[in-house]
Amino acid sequence: MAKVGGDGGFDYVYADDAGRKLYIARSGQTGRVSVFDLDTLAPAVEIPANGGHGAAVDPKSGHGFVSSRPIVMWDTKTLTTIKTIDVQGGPDGISFDPFNQHVYIWSHGPPNATVINAVDGSIAGTIDVGGAPEQAVSDGKGHVYVDVEDKANVAVIDAATMKVTAHYPLGDASTPAGLAFDPKNRVLFVACRQPAPGVMVMLNADDGKILGTLPLAGGSDGATFNPKTMEAFSSSGNARLTVIKENSPTSFVVEQIVETMNGAKTLTFDSKTEHVLLIGAERAPAPAAPATPPADGRGGRGGGGRGGTVPGSFTIVVVGK
Description:
By secondary structure, the protein is mainly beta. The chain has a single domain, classed as 7 Propeller (Methylamine Dehydrogenase, Chain H), CATH 2.130.10. The protein contains no helices and 28 strands. The chain has strands spanning 2-3, 10-16, 21-26, 32-37, 43-48, 55-58, 63-66, 71-75, 81-85, 91-97, 102-107, 113-117, 123-127, 133-138, 143-148, 153-158, 163-169, 174-182, 187-194, 199-204, 210-215, 220-226, 231-236, 238-248, 251-262, 266-270, 275-280, 315-319.
């Protein structure tokens, strides 16, 4: 673990394994993208951004983007801002598709996806995925897959036409929030929060057939895949990282539950080191229940609420073998 501190909220973490940088968007009064050396976790610079959630990089053009409003685009070598891009909706998730160098800005409200040309920062179009998108993956061959959280399916997008071509249902599972992809066997790993505490649904990426379902150790907010070890990972805020082994394209088992830290709900994968990196922060004890109920009769949250984040406790967690 590396306790790096810094004020503000956080959501997604992104490893630029080619450029050896780690990007973490921080919200709050001083919104920015905190950049770290991916090998040492030493802080590099901070790129100003307004309320960003996640980052993505196009290694070919050397341009980075953060899902803020407006979108901030930067040079990944100098780490200086190139331009800002006005978008609609509420930018949340973000992903990069190497097929045509497009960056997808995901929003729970319309437009669900704003597609940006990573080369020049122009807006290529918008997409309605039929619901609230969460995590997305690309097969690099013209297909983009994205969880639709409130509709319990995975939307399939034709990257060339920017049109939804299919929705893959998840059987009895719902609230998908993490998504990973095995490019060799074309398996989608869909991390769902329901039924509680969560399940991983494996789908055939070409036809949506359900290949299996396994329990998760907590409500997922992120998933990733290691093609060398054939392992899928699902992170959850209850300090549990579930590791699923793909023994064959139709055989999967829960291999391990790794202890991380509370709040470490999102993750990223460094393909060079094969490390999984997560981010979290310590929380103060929950406030005690009031001795006298409030005058409005609502009773308050009592001891069931969460305490605030402990100042300076923001931490990068590294998991490896």
